[in-house]
What we know:
By secondary structure, the chain is of the alpha/beta class. It is built from 16 helices and 9 strands. The strands form 2 sheets. Strands 3-2-1-4-5-9-8 form a 7-stranded mixed β-sheet, with helices on both faces. A two-stranded antiparallel ribbon has the order 6-7. Strand 6 and strand 7 form a beta hairpin. Helix 2 packs across helix 4, helix 12 (246-256) crosses helix 15 and helix 13 (273-281) runs antiparallel to helix 14 (284-290).
Amino acid sequence: MLVDGDGPRTRLDQVLRKRRWSTSDFVRVFNRSSLELAAAGNAGVGGSATQVSTRQATRWISGETSRPATESLRVLARMFPAETPEALLGPPRAEDAHPPQHHGGDRMPPLPTAQAPIAGSTLADTLFDAKLATFQQWQTTPWGRLRYSIAAANLTPHLQPGSRVLDVAGGNGLDAVELAARGHHVTIADISESALADARALAEKHGVGDRISTRLLSVDELAQQFAHNEFDVVLCHNLLQYVPDPKTLIAVLASMVASGGVVSVIAPNADADPLLTAVRNLDLDVALRQLDSPTRHTVTYGTETRACYAGSVTHDLAEAGLHLRAHCGIRSVCDLLVDDAVKNDPRFFVQLERLELAMATRAPYIHTARFFQLIATPKT
């Protein structure tokens, strides 16, 4: 559907109508262009990307808002090189010189509509490398630590001693080092050389360097680089939301696992988002929209990702010839607790982890946990 209204209201509105772009099309291209500028170090302070919501875009198009910030004007200039901001949006208004002051900010980023960066693309490589330090900081938080400890506990009962493990998008190796410490041999495949270097250093630090190897690969190269049935365990943790075709990726992963082996898939649980948004952020409008939105916003990487549902992924696993052995949850309680400070208390954290472990395999908690973990094995 094209931009609403009987006739063009701004030059931008006119340009979009000529191109037959909807507001969603504009938002998608704007946000992607912004990320490309940021990756090149040309947008925002320190090369950070600015992202626009559908609501903001609608107000720009209709002329019902003050001029965007300088970073947004740069993105518009990139998108429409034949136009100027003054031609697209009209001249600056009086209030632009003294914009209203906001205190505190939104509780949650606007609901995004842009396409996620694709794992393996130049943009994604740059984005993941740029955010590595932020990601490592997240790993040290109570909720980050729970992500890894609960995932390991969920997976352990399904492993055989001395397994050959492929950790796809294994990053800086936290999952891999834990498995290597238990006697398994792990190959980490990732698109970030910086993350792989950290993984090797971490493995040496923990005395398991001889049981971990790294490969600089994109998801598109997996099928060419590894043989069928080469691994006893294949991990795909926090990757599906970034790839353009999860079904194809799952089929590739299934082809690499040996008979009797297991595939472990972890993804953010889209079913949990409306609940968390309503409870933590008190943003009921956004929670309502999330029920049907195909995208989600990742705070760590500051971009949009695919909304992942356990039922859909289970279906893709079955079509790839895998039988679901376990549906587990990760962080059933932690994210519902608004007081983040108390989670740093060591005694409270021990109690929280004990409760999370008890809930990780029990319905109905697995269906509303922050992440779902699906463990599947080849059909016999």
